[in-house]
Design goal:
Length: 418
């Protein structure tokens, strides 16, 4: 089936003329699943996501994958289709408890393809999804991000005659900022239509909900949860470790963290900074650590497995990620679940969960001096950081595990599938 199975939709007639190719889907892989009975009405959910663990990066999309087994125990069966545009190369599935396959679809490369990608994706998926729906009907589609998966879900929901919901995780709500004025307006129109047609728009924080700015959207905040993999353990005594986890991109604030760490190092000489993650800023950050004279105290650890990240969280004394934009930031929650005080910037989604001075610490955006002071204070005061770490762990345990997230999602699915 080609792209023309989906006629031009409202507000897209000027763009639709370039969207007429039919591209076959490729790369199908499955993983074994297990069942766990619970009392809720059984639902079958088709999950469309561009974020999902794969053989190249086991941590990618863990915030999507890790809630699926708890959902299965609540009688929510998830059929996952993880998607990637063809020009980014092939992704391969890994063994997991939940059925998954990867699909690679045609899209114009880069930002140029963003507003139209959902149409191509839907065209690639429609035949196989219709077949799967005939064999074992879906009750609901859950798309992650409006572009491309939300747009594709809106189109597929019309064909299958079932409702869909869409999750918004952070920067994806502002995707038009990536594309420039002309493409940005197109992205905004497509996203607004997706939010308006979705049975519910799931936001990972109030900050993200504010970014929707669409009064017709039925928005609901469901915070991401933390898997049991992250749990407290005794910190490494010497050297004390400041840990940061995140992609090495400018908005994550690693350069500010390096400068703040250098400022306080003479006051707390027996410490080191570990940075887990990779990205385009790696070389620049290594040079900066050399210029600051702290390269012997900084370890760039690259990309790590989920287990390695969990063990690093347990060993560290303090977690810090002064990111300029986080819709929520799962790594903060993972550090908190590990019983460690997390330092974040004010005004981000995580400050809806971190209570300054009670279960974590907040600094102003680009507040290098304040970050340095916070690091020094927490590293020098073991009793205080232990108190904050215990409170952080209790916060997650009481409200922010994957089981809490699964219960809220299951309830929303039940309401939306009616």
């Amino acid at each position: 089936m080609g792209a023309n199975i989906f006629p031009p939709r409202p507000a897209e007639s000027t763009e639709a003329s370039i969207l007429s190719r039919d591209q076959p889907s490729v790369c199908v892989a499955t993983a074994p699943s297990v069942s766990s009975p619970t009392p809720l009405r059984t639902l079958r959910v088709l999950t469309l996501t561009p974020f999902y663990p794969n053989s190249e990066n086991l941590a990618e999309g863990c915030f999507v994958a890790e809630v699926l087994p708890p959902l299965k125990r609540l009688e929510i069966t998830s059929h996952v289709i993880a998607v990637r545009p063809f020009y980014r190369g092939r992704a391969r599935a890994v063994d997991s408890e939940v059925l998954c396959r990867w699909e690679h679809y045609f899209s114009f490369p880069g930002n140029l393809g963003l507003p139209s990608a959902g149409r191509f994706l839907a065209a690639d998926l429609v035949t196989s999804v219709q077949r799967a729906h005939r064999e074992n009907p879906f009750d609901l589609i859950h798309a992650h991000a409006a572009l491309p998966c939300g747009d594709a879900a809106a189109r597929l929901s019309e064909v299958l005659e079932i409702p869909f919901v869409v999750s918004v995780h952070g920067l994806d709500v502002f995707s038009e900022r990536q594309t420039g004025r002309l493409l940005g307006r197109w992205c905004r129109r497509v996203s607004a239509r997706v939010y308006g047609e979705a049975r519910a728009v799931i936001c990972v924080s109030e900050k993200v909900r504010e970014g929707i700015a669409d009064p017709s959207a039925n928005t609901k905040v469901i915070y991401n949860g933390v898997a049991s993999l992250f749990s407290p353990a005794e910190e490494q005594k010497s050297p004390l470790v400041v840990l940061s986890v995140g992609n090495l991109i400018p908005t994550k604030g690693h350069a500010m963290l390096l400068r703040a760490f250098a400022r306080m190092l003479s006051s707390v000489p027996d410490c080191e900074l570990g940075i887990i993650g990779d990205g385009p800023e790696r070389s620049a950050l290594i040079r900066l650590s050399e210029q600051l004279g702290i390269s012997a105290r900084v370890r760039f650890l690259g990309r790590q497995s989920r287990g390695d990240v969990a063990r690093a969280m347990q060993r560290c004394a303090v977690f810090a990620l002064p990111s300029e934009y986080e819709g929520l930031g799962c790594v903060y929650l993972e550090a908190m679940a590990s019983g460690k005080p997390a330092i974040a910037c004010e005004g981000q989604g995580i400050d809806e969960i971190i209570e300054h001075g009670s279960n974590g610490w907040l600094v102003p955006p680009r507040g290098e001096a304040q970050l340095s002071d916070a690091l020094q204070m927490l590293l020098q005061n073991q009793d205080f950081r232990s108190r904050l770490g215990n409170a952080a762990h209790n916060t997650v345990l009481q409200r922010h595990t994957v089981n809490h997230q699964a219960e809220q999602l299951a309830q929303l699915y039940q309401e939306c599938a009616r």
